[in-house]
Amino acid sequence: MAPQAAVRVPVARHPPAVHDALVPDPLPILPIDRLRALLLPAGRPGLSREPRPTAWSATRIEAELTQVAQGLRLPVERWRLVQGVVWCWHDHVDRAWTGLAGLGPAADPLRLVILRRQGAGEACLRLLKTLGNHPMGERLVPIAAAEGLSGPFVDERGFRADTFLARCLAPDPQEIPALERLQAAELLGLLQDAVMGPWAR
Q1: What is the DSSP letter of 197?
Q2: C-beta of residue 42 within 8 angstroms of C-beta of residue 87
Q3: Domains: count for the chain
Q4: Confidence tier at 85 by pLDDT (50, 70, 90)
Q5: For the purposes of burial, counting CB atoms within 10 Å of the CB of 24, is it exposed (0-12), middle (13-18) or buried (19 or more)?
């Protein structure tokens, strides 16, 4: 089998990013810090596809991704997932979706977020049924607890992705900040997995 093409990104020291999504860092110095810097300055993404004033333009995203991609050795499939997370975070959900074309099951967790932000509830439920449950569920349980949402979102089976979906599609205004923090943690976890996690083909 021919070796996979790779994208190179420099590994550099950066101060820890300040954010309110409780995603643990497995190692103190990783390119993940450089990649998070493409997300966090814009603030948390909203629950829908509506663009925020703080979201970056497509031109800026492309320029920033090109700069970051100069030195990280990452298989092309993983780099496409990284790009998908960045596009989704900055509200370019259609661009995020098309960028995942041709990728296999490894892209399904991100597809789940994109479909939810597009308001495609039925398609999201079908994908959840295929996946079995939310792939990030175990990591979202303690965050839901910290947000005071254990009651509706966690039961003996774990994280209730169907409830999360329903609340995101028709949110109580008072719950929106907590739901956005859960979604931010979800996307940051997907970014981490794209760089360092297991790969499902």
Answers
A1: S
A2: no
A3: 1
A4: very high
A5: exposed
Distance CA 1, CA 4 (A): 9
Report the alpha-carbon distance of residue 106 to residue 111 in Å, rounded.
10
Sign of CA dihedral 193, 166, 176, 143: negative
Q: How far apart are CA 44 and CA 138, in angstroms?
A: 21
Q: Under the phi-then-psi rule, with left for phi > 0, alpha for psi from -120 to 50, and beta for the rest, what region is 172?
A: beta
> Does 83 map to a domain?
yes
Express each pLDDT in 29-67 by its tens digit: 357 888 999 999 999 999 999 999 999 999 999 999 998
CA dist., res. 38 & res. 62, Å (int): 11
Note whether residue 102 is domain-resident. Answer: yes
Is position 80 within any domain?
yes
**Residues 56, 79: contact at Cβ < 8 Å?**
no
Task: Identify the pLDDT of residue 74.
Answer: 83
Whose tokens are 């295929």? That residue is 130
pLDDT in the model for residue 40: 94
Q: Whole domain around residue 101: which residue ranges?
A: 28-38+54-196
Is 15 within a domain?
no
